[in-house]
Design brief:
By secondary structure, the chain is α+β, with helices and mostly antiparallel strands. The protein is globular and about 45 Å long.
Length: about 140
């Protein structure tokens, strides 16, 4: 099966997004959380979930579409506990608005960017997000 890259973002956007999180942490002492979102291969619902997330995020937040089944969210000025609440609220909002026969099989990984965090590279963050037990 060929990968549909038309929904993927430019890799520079991910570096910029992580740079913004690192800048908020180091220059303003604001925490941010980067969330890895992963669906099953070939999941037709996953792009719709990401579209819904994107439509409900705050202006300061961002989404990066890696592939058809993987995306990265950056939630600014929140800690991990708050980010987990936001993700749960988003998923519940999607479930309420778009009833499906089965619950979406989506995994999440979290990486908190704190003023103390020094390793906010693309490689480090993506490994932390998608190698986590919570993602596929």
């Amino acid at each position: 099966m060929a990968i549909d890259d038309s929904r993927s973002d430019d890799p520079c956007k991910l570096r910029d997004m992580l740079g913004k999180a690192a800048s908020l942490a180091s220059e303003h002492s604001l925490r941010s959380v980067v969330v890895g979102v992963a669906g099953r291969e070939g999941d037709l619902l996953f792009p719709e979930i990401i579209d819904f997330f994107e439509s409900t995020l705050r202006v300061d937040d961002a989404i990066f579409r890696m592939t058809r089944e993987r995306a990265v969210l950056m939630l600014a000025d929140v800690d991990r506990a708050r980010a987990e609440e936001i993700v749960e609220r988003l998923m519940n909002g999607f479930r309420e608005r778009f009833a499906t026969a089965v619950d979406p099989d989506i995994g999440f990984g979290f990486f908190e960017v704190t003023p103390e965090e020094r390793d906010v590279t693309v490689k480090h963050v993506l490994l932390a997000l998608f190698m986590d037990q919570g993602t596929h």
